[in-house]
Design goal:
Layout lengths: L7 H12 L2 H15 L16 H15 L9 H21 L1 H25 L6 H25 L3 H6 L14 E2 L2 E2 L8 H20 L20 H15 L3 H18 L3 H27 L9 H21 L23 H34 L10 H15 L7 H20 L27
Antiparallel strand pairs: 1-2
């Protein structure tokens, strides 16, 4: 019964959505629930799927969303891609395990993939709330960073310590790992690498907010920043950057650095020259580095000279060892974590390989089409638009950088729990942005600050 507290965010989301607005419930209830409460704690409900905190909020919010006529929603091709992806994952598990064992995964695909995707595409851009959404993410992750510092120092996860008492026997598989003599902060996400991916998304959104001058010059509760000669935008950038560092995840750091190349294009006034420079760096520096890394990783774990090389060798061998296993059930996979384990390879530290093993090539190809297709579409869209002012305020390049970061990062870690849900929220936001965006940056007209009046009836007062 204690685990039923996971239903509380659902009750709160329903109340806010009914009595205020669905948009407010999404941005200021659902997003904080997703980013501040663990996804590995569930309300054990006999005869029903076992929802996590954010899944209960997702169901409640979707119910009100449908009752109010699905405000902001409009069908698009991306809906089919995301829908087929969620279906292929669910169907593959049904084939492998039957409905009784597969129901929780099916529930996850519905409440943590489809519903958040629909919320994001319907409730952010159509209501001109991109700043509010990004600020909600940044504020939540800033709070997570503060608690991450405690975890770095003491190796003590506060979420597991204090929420775990309501969920006996749950979340015990998540352990604290160490690097450089510090605990690697996992926050409410289970693992430090998942924390690193989510913080990297937050960093890109915060930089876009800062460049867009979306934060006010002064904030009531941050007046003390003046003593340090900091503006709120600079302060939140430091907070999220600290959050990225607190996870001590080198793969996520590398992914963020590489993805920044796309943002450089968006901030440049000479985009063609910037594209040429970025491509040249990728070809003449990135390609040799990649070849050097493959040579470094292919020596085998037995011949590794240090822990870093052993980790790289493990991930290299992982792919070569499991490709034949995955191809035995090519189309629908083995089912969630049911593939025959190769001795010496306890974890699959590559989400693309894991998807291939669990759910087959259909789910893998759909995921790649969503991820890479959206990234390319955003770059093309950004290149076709006028240069924005302030520089860096184009949302297209920041979103495309997030997709590139995901592509690189999840090659070293599974995309699961909140990192998966956040990915599909970004997909939904991007789909609506590509379809609806009529403003992007100030462009000299002050359009960035003006939100359209969404009231059904508009009257003008005449004196």
């Amino acid at each position: 019964m204690l685990s039923y507290i996971a239903y509380l965010p659902g009750l709160w989301a329903y109340y806010v959505a009914q009595n205020q607005s669905v948009t407010k419930a999404f941005i200021w209830v659902y997003i904080p629930t997703l980013l501040l409460l663990p996804d590995y704690y569930r309300a054990i409900t006999p005869g029903l799927p076992d929802p996590s905190f954010n899944q209960s909020a997702s169901v409640a919010l979707f119910a009100v969303f449908v009752m109010q006529g699905s405000p902001g929603y409009k069908f698009s091709l991306t809906d089919l891609l995301v829908g087929f992806y969620a279906f292929s994952v669910s169907f593959s598990e049904f084939l492998a395990s039957g409905y009784a064992d597969a129901q929780n995964l099916m529930f996850f695909e519905l409440t943590s993939v489809m519903f958040p995707y629909i919320f994001a595409k319907s409730l952010i851009e159509p209501f001109n709330l991109r700043y509010d959404f990004a600020k909600s993410v940044v504020l939540c992750l800033s709070f997570v960073f503060v608690l991450n510092l405690f975890e770095n120092k003491f190796g003590f996860n506060l979420w597991q310590a204090y929420l775990g008492m309501f969920f006996p026997g749950q979340g015990l598989g998540w352990i604290t790992t160490f690097r450089f003599g510090l605990a690697r902060a996992a926050g409410p996400y289970g693992h430090c690498l998942l924390d690193g991916v989510i913080m990297a998304v937050g960093y890109r959104l915060q930089r876009w907010l800062q460049w867009s001058e979306a934060w006010p010059e002064k904030m009531k509760h941050l007046t003390w920043l003046k003593a340090f000669k900091l503006k709120p935008g600079q302060f939140f950038t430091l907070m999220i950057f600290g959050g990225v560092l607190s996870t001590l995840g080198k793969g996520q750091w590398l992914a963020g650095i590489v993805a920044a190349g796309i943002v450089i294009i968006g901030r440049s006034k000479q985009r063609v020259a910037a594209v040429t420079a970025v491509v040249a760096v990728m070809v003449f520096i990135g390609l040799p580095l990649l070849l050097a890394f493959l040579s470094y990783a292919s020596v085998g774990r037995k011949n590794a000279k240090d822990d870093n090389q052993e980790t790289a060798a493990y991930r290299y061998e992982l792919v070569t060892e499991y490709m034949d296993v995955a191809s035995e059930r090519l189309w629908w996979g083995w089912g969630l974590m049911k593939w025959p384990e190769v001795p010496g390879f306890e974890s699959i530290d590559n989400h693309f390989l894991l998807t291939y093993l669990n759910h087959g090539v259909i789910a893998l190809m759909l995921l790649l089409v969503i991820m890479l297709g959206m990234m390319v579409r955003l770059i093309i869209h950004g290149m076709s638009r006028p240069i924005t002012e302030p520089r860096g305020s184009s949302l297209a390049f920041s979103l495309s950088a997030i997709f590139l970061m995901y592509f690189i990062a999840v090659a070293t870690v599974a995309m699961m729990n909140q990192s998966c849900t956040l990915f599909f929220i970004i997909v939904g936001l991007s789909d609506a942005y590509l379809r609806l965006s009529t403003w992007d940056g100030d462009q000299g007209g002050g359009k960035t600050r003006q939100e359209p009046d969404t009231r059904k009836f508009k009257f003008r007062k005449v004196l």
